[in-house]
Design a protein that fits this description.
Layout lengths: L6 H15 L2 E5 L6 E5 L16 H6 L3 H21 L5 H15 L7 H10 L25 H9 L7 H15 L6 H11 L2 H8 L1 H8 L15 E15 L2 E12 L5 E7 L4 H13 L9 E4 L8 H4 L3 H6 L12 H5 L3 E4 L9 H14 L17 H5 L8 H16 L10 E2 L2 E2 L2 H8 L11 H5 L2 E2 L10 E5 L2 E5 L21 E5 L2 E8 L5 E6 L12 H16 L4 H4 L7 H23 L15 H14 L4 H7 L3 H8 L5 H18 L1
Parallel strand pairs: 3-6, 6-7
Antiparallel strand pairs: 1-2, 3-4, 4-5, 8-9, 10-13, 11-12, 13-14, 14-15
Helix pairs in contact: 3-4, 3-5, 6-7, 9-10, 20-22
């Protein structure tokens, strides 16, 4: 009803008040034929008619087109139903005919006998057509106090990703305490995405997923760089296990790829990625004549190894804090600066900046599946037989085998023209990365002094000064000393530190027994040897240095290893590295010898080991010595003697007395 009052209340009001005021009368209804109260429209503004008394048209205009059509169709059904009510044909036959014809006329309506009766009762005239509007659905959600949803938002948008139920319970407790109105848990779940958009939820709860799937991005134009102009580099751990120096590891790949053509221009495998692997793979790329001399720009990962001093002439911390080096900036540009290569760092935790290289890394999963030691990309793809395979060393491929197959895999990738990359085509013909690089690379970088490339691609230490003990280099956290008696370092020594000239030092991580020294202008000074190297004097590597460091750490951690590592505390760092190099050579020799040896055997021990000889000896003695009846009787041992022999020596005196008594009793009763 328009008045939003109970029907009985309206009748009571008409009878007690409105009839006396002349605002209501009781008369026979022309529709139903029964007595009914009629109220004047000026009694309440809500009954005021506009548009010729069709008050229901206002509600009808506010509805959607579908619901408006349904309301008009229902009104037509009511009008026809009232026509048969006032007709002469019996309802028993007229009503089924009407329902059948209306269902054919309005197939979208659910017309039934009870439905027609309900519509007839609700809409007395066309003014009540708004009562025929289907108001189910729509915005009928329960409302909460204005303070509740901001509190729910603050709790739910947290990186720890609390559950909806947990946040809802906290808000419910807050509402109870502060007298707020809060909704049910089901209503909270239904309204959550409307109150807090899924994009906002992902931004605060799952930032990485937001960046990958919802954050806006700038499309990468393939023609932004020409072929050979920009290289991209990153690390990737292979999804398979391999044997490496007596243990099993998951090998790491460090790769450089050309942006425009996606060609893998340089790569290297290692047990652990570091600046050495980055430098080694870059050296391969720049030394290969097919790569036109290397890039003009590089885009690298934002990790610590790519930000090392050797590449940029300053550490990552120095660049972040904007620490100015003590020496001239022009002489500490790092390898990239000396090669004239501009460096771009990818955004942290965002692989889209290196998407083309990441796509190649995705292909490595198929490469890893070719090995029996494939470990899966997650727990769901991990093979069930992996532990059984790893328990058999013969089934695990060696590092060299994986490296050989990786070389073939990358060569096939670079030569493959059967791909779905639209930007690697010319005149509608698909090109392989090798073909595209050869055709589109129009600039070749040529070194003025080709021999200088090998010097540049060495490991460079921070600029330093020479002291009384020569040069002190910090490598892998340990200090190594060089050239304490070398006369070429005399011009660089002085009493006061500020008077000492700065030198630049490069070294080969595979040969740490000597380093190269250059002056401030990178003019070669000399090659100086390590101080006090005893034992092995050639072939010292960075790995030997790390091995010596691990030995010393093990010694300091536990005094139980004094017997094994006791000499470690008396050796210098140089002597420890020499010892580690000697141990490594011995281990390599043993591995080569064991590779040609027969299969390993597992010795099983039992409690009867060695007893077969005693049995055989007894059999031989019986076969050689003649045995008569007397000797056989003499060899018979009585049970009493066996009991005496089995008694411990300390208890034999008391046991002998008991046994003698048993013997007397036996004779007496015999």
């Amino acid at each position: 009803m328009k008045l939003r009052r109970d029907e009985g209340d309206v009748r009571r009001l008409c009878r007690e008040k409105l009839a006396a005021e002349g605002k209501a009368i009781i008369a026979t209804s022309p529709v139903s034929g029964r007595p009914q109260w009629f109220v004047r429209r000026d009694f309440d503004p809500r009954l005021t008619a506009d548009d010729g008394g069709r008050t229901g048209a206002i509600g009808l205009e506010q509805c959607s087109g579908r619901r408006r059509d349904e309301a008009l169709q229902k009104w037509d059904c009511v009008r026809k139903y009232r026509a048969i009510l006032n007709g002469r044909e019996p309802m028993k036959t007229a009503r089924p005919k009407l329902i059948a014809s209306l269902r054919l006329q309005y197939p979208s309506l659910r017309i039934s006998r009870s439905g027609l009766h309900t519509w007839h009762a609700e809409a007395a005239s066309f003014a009540d057509i708004d009562k025929l509007i289907d108001r189910r659905g729509g915005h009928q959600a329960p409302e909460a106090s204005p303070e509740c949803w901001p509190a729910m938002k603050d709790l739910y948008l947290h990186p720890n990703q609390p559950t909806v139920r947990h946040c809802w319970k906290i808000v419910r407790a807050m509402a109870t305490k502060n007298g707020w109105k809060w909704i049910s848990y089901g209503a909270c779940r239904r309204q959550l995405n409307r109150r807090i958009s899924p994009e906002e939820q992902a931004l605060h709860r799952q930032p990485e997923k937001y960046r990958q799937e919802l954050a806006p991005y700038i499309a990468q134009e393939p023609e932004s760089w020409r072929a050979g102009e920009l290289y991209i580099s990153d690390h990737k751990q292979l999804d398979c296990w391999a044997r490496w120096r007596g243990t099993i590891i998951r090998i790491w790949l460090t790769a450089w790829t050309d942006w425009r053509t996606r060609k893998i221009v340089g790569w290297t495998l290692s047990d652990s990625p570091c600046s050495s692997t980055i430098l080694g793979s870059l050296g391969k790329a720049m030394r290969d004549p097919a790569n036109c001399g290397g890039p003009a720009e590089v885009r690298v990962d934002n990790g610590k190894d790519f930000s090392a001093f050797v590449f940029h002439g300053s550490t990552k911390r120095e660049r972040q804090l904007k620490i100015s080096p003590r020496v001239d900036e022009g002489s500490t540009r790092g390898i990239f600066g000396m090669l004239g290569i501009e460096v771009h760092f990818a955004r942290p935790h965002n692989p889209n900046g290196k998407s083309r290289l990441e796509r190649f890394f995705g292909n490595l999963t198929s490469f890893a599946r070719t090995f029996d030691t494939f470990c899966g990309i997650d727990s769901e793809t991990k093979p069930e037989r992996l532990a059984e395979i790893l328990a058999n060393p013969a089934a695990i491929p060696t590092f060299a085998e994986v490296e050989k197959r990786m070389a073939n895999f990358i060569a096939g990738y670079n030569a493959n023209a059967d791909h779905a990359m639209d930007d690697l085509s010319e005149d509608g013909v698909k090109l392989s990365p090798n073909e595209a690089f050869a055709r589109w690379c129009d600039t070749r970088r040529v070194m003025a002094d080709p021999a200088a490339l090998d010097l540049l691609l060495a490991h460079w230490h921070k600029p330093m000064t020479a002291g009384r003990n020569g040069l002190s280099l910090t490598i892998s956290g340990r200090v190594l000393h060089y050239g304490h008696t070398d006369p070429s370092l005399r011009p660089f020594k002085a009493f006061r530190r500020q008077d000492r000239r700065v030198v630049n030092v490069s070294y080969d991580p595979d040969h740490l027994e000597s380093v190269r020294v250059f002056d401030e202008q990178f003019r070669f000074v000399a090659t100086v040897e390590m101080n006090h190297v005893g034992g092995v004097v050639e072939g010292l590597t960075k790995e030997d240095h790390a091995t010596a460091h691990r030995k010393l750490a093990a010694y300091q951690k536990s005094m139980r290893h004094v017997a094994e590592y006791g000499i470690t505390g008396t050796l210098t760092a140089e002597e420890q590295i020499a010892e580690a190099a000697f141990d490594r050579r011995e281990q390599t020799s043993r591995e080569i010898a064991s590779a040609n040896s027969p299969a390993k055997m597992r010795i099983v021990q039992t409690p009867l080991d060695g007893q077969s000889k005693e049995v055989r000896r007894e059999e031989i003695r019986e076969a050689i010595e003649p045995v008569n009846a007397a000797e056989a009787a003499a060899r018979q041992v009585s049970p009493m003697d066996l009991l005496r022999r089995s008694t411990p020596p300390a208890a034999r005196p008391a046991a002998s007395k008991q046994l003698d008594g048993f013997a007397l009793l036996r004779k007496r009763f015999a």
